[in-house]
Amino acid sequence: MLFSMGCALGGCATNVYLSEPPPYAILPVDESMTCNGIASSFRFSARRAARLEYWLSVGPLAGYETERFPLDAPKQLVDERRRLDALSDLQRMKGCTVMEPGPAVVEERTRLEGSAVGAPPPPVVLKSRG
Q1: Vertex 25, ends 113 and 48: CA angle to 5°?
Q2: CB of 86 within 8 A of CB of 25?
Q3: Phi, psi of 85 (to 5 degrees)
Q4: Is the pTM of this model over 0.70?
Q5: Residue-wise burial string across 22-59, b where 16 or more C-beta atoms lie within 10 A, e elsewhere
Q6: What does the alpha-carbon distance between residue 86 and residue 37 come to, in Å, rounded to a whole number?
Q7: E strands along the chain, which residues?
C-alpha cells in the first residue's frame, strides 16, 4: 500500500523511452479524395522520392544546409516511400487504378536524370565595348 501511494504521489520511474511517433503516411484528407486526386498525390510523392534519391546519389543540393542533408534526406526518403505504399493501398481499397511505387519512382528518376543530362548549355552573352 505504501509503495502504491508513493508511486501515485511522487510518480514511478520506469524504463520507458519515448521516441518520435512514426510520420504519417496517409493524411485525413487523402481518404476523402477521388481516384484522380489520389493519383496526383501519388505522382507528387513519387517525384519527391525520385529527387531525394537523385540528390543522395549526386551530393547535397546547392543552397540546402549541406551539413544536415546526409542526415535528413534518408529519413525523408523512407517517409516518402511509406507514403507511396499507403497511397497504393488506398487506391486498392477504393477500387482505383493502382500505381506501383517502384516503377513510378524509377520513371520519375529517369525523367529527372534525363533533364539534368540533356539540359541545353546556358546562352552565351556577348559583351560589347561599343
Answers
A1: 15
A2: yes
A3: -60, -45
A4: no
A5: eeebbeeebeebeeeebbebbeebbbbbbbbbebbeee
A6: 14
A7: none
Distances (CA, A) of 9 to 28, 94, 110, 120, 126: 39, 51, 61, 71, 80
Tens-digit pLDDT profile for residues 73-129: 888 899 999 999 999 999 999 999 999 999 999 999 999 888 765 555 555 555 555
Which DSSP symbol is given to 100?
P
Is the Cβ–Cβ distance between 87 and 45 less than 8 Å? Answer: yes
Angle (CA) 73-79-83 rounded to 5° is 140
Which triple of cell numbers denotes residue 120? 541545353
